[in-house]
Model the fold of this input.
Amino acid sequence: MESSINRVELLGRTGNRPTLRQTPNGTLLTQFSLYTNQLWRNSSGELCEAAERHAITAWGQLAIQCCNYLRKGSRVYVRGRLQTRRWSDPDTSDIRLRTEVIDNEVIFLGGIRQSTLPLSSSLSAI
Done:
C-alpha cells in the first residue's frame, strides 16, 4: 500500500472567539475560524491581497486550551490534518460538505491572556 500525507500548517488570526462544546458521549471540542492572507503583485504591479477563512476544530485538552487563551484576532499557528464531513440537510435533503482542519498542535503567538470566564460557564452541549 502506498503511503500518503495529510498535513496542514497555518499561521494567521482567529476570526471569532472559540466556544467549548461537549459531544453526547462527553468529549470536549471547540471550533473557530482562522484567517490567512496572501499578498502578490498583479501584472500592473499593484499590490493585491486575498484572505482565506479556515474552519478549525480542536478536541479534548487542546480544545480547553484554545478556549482559555484565544480571542477574536489572536495570532496563532495551527498544525493538523484536513477532514471533510458530509451529511444530508434534514430540512432540504441537500448534501452538505464541510472541510475543516483537525488540530494536532496550536502555538499561541503574541502573548497569552487568561480567560476571564470560568471554564464551566462557557461549556455548551452539541
In short: The chain has one domain: 1-12+23-84+107-126. Residues 114-126 have pLDDT under 50 and may be disordered.
